[in-house]
């Protein structure tokens, strides 16, 4: 089955953004500019990727310009994907070979990746209104994926989007790297600094720190 972007999808999410989604005018304009500059890139709302019945849902912020916006798969084609997929493979959440393109054959096991904002934002910084407009798609995914037992939020904004999508008060679940929250429905929400090049280059996030978060999730899920 294919979605409206023409990318493979394995579950029926109730609501997906159209290829020419108009909800966020600034993002739509930026998307149009990128299509003109790079007509061979994906340049559309990036669909989620992974297991159709995941125990773990990983939530990032938004597609990277030369990563998912180019390749059409979350965290694929940029540095963040190198660290993320390497770590997921180490702990049994992925198998195959990550070659930084969407046709590399990589598969996720019991895990799925979604972005809080589906379109690439200028300077990788979505605005508040764009986060709110795109939240409907994350909400749809969270309510559809009944198998999810753990959510990994990559960064504070992704953490806040998960809470908002679930209708939970942020003050009760503060973001902190390595924090693990048990939500009212029994789902575990784990936090990590985003696995971006900026965070790893500055030492804010080391591979060992990131692995510790994934290891905690794997232990809780019995992986």
Write the layout of secondary structure elements.
Elements: H1 25-37, E1 49-50, E2 56-60, H2 68-71, H3 79-90, E3 94-95, E4 107-108, E5 111-115, H4 128-144, E6 150-154, H5 156-165, E7 180-182, E8 188-192, H6 197-201, H7 207-221
Parallel strand pairs: 2-5, 2-6, 6-8
Antiparallel strand pairs: 1-5, 3-4, 7-8
Helix pairs in contact: 4-5
Structure in a nutshell:
By secondary structure, the chain is α/β, with parallel strands linked by helices.
Describe this structure in words.
This protein has 223 residues and is an alpha/beta fold. 34% of the residues lie in helices and 13% in strands. It has helices spanning 25-37, 68-71, 79-90, 128-144, 156-165, 197-201, 207-221; strands at residues 49-50, 56-60, 94-95, 107-108, 111-115, 150-154, 180-182, 188-192. The longest helix is centred in the middle third of the chain and has 17 residues, at 128-144. The model is unreliable at 1-10 (pLDDT under 50).
Largest sheet: 6 strands, mixed
Anisotropy-based shape: globular
Amount of beta strand: 5-15%
Radius of gyration: 16 Å
Structural class: alpha/beta
- Contiguous low-pLDDT stretches (5 residues minimum) are 1-10
Share of helix among residues? 25-40%
What is the first-to-last residue Cα distance? 29 Å
Number of helix segments?
Answer: 7
Average pLDDT figure: 92
What is the tally of beta strands? 8
Name the strands of the widest sheet in spatial order.
1-5-2-6-8-7
Order of helices and strands: HEEHHEEEHEHEEHH
């Amino acid at each position: 089955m294919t979605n409206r972007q023409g990318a493979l999808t394995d579950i029926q999410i109730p609501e997906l953004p159209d290829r020419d989604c108009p909800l966020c005018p600034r993002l739509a304009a930026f998307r149009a500019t990128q299509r003109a500059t790079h007509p061979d890139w994906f340049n559309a709302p990036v669909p989620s990727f992974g297991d159709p019945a995941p125990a773990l849902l990983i939530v990032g912020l938004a597609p990277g310009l030369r990563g998912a916006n180019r390749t059409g798969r979350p965290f694929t084609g940029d540095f963040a994907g190198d660290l993320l997929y390497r770590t997921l493979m180490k702990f049994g959440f992925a198998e195959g070979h990550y070659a930084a393109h969407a046709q590399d054959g990589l598969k996720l096991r019991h895990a799925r990746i979604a972005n809080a904002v589906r379109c690439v934002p200028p300077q990788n910084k979505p605005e508040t209104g764009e986060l709110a407009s795109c939240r409907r798609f994350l909400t749809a995914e969270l309510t559809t994926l009944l198998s999810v037992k753990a959510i990994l939020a990559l960064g504070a904004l992704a953490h806040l989007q998960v809470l908002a999508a679930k209708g939970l008060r942020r003050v009760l679940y503060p973001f902190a790297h390595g924090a693990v929250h048990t939500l009212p429905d029994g789902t575990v929400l784990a936090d990590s600094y985003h696995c971006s090049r900026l965070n790893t280059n500055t030492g804010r996030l080391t591979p060992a720190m990131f692995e510790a978060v994934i290891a905690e999730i794997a232990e809780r899920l019995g992986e």
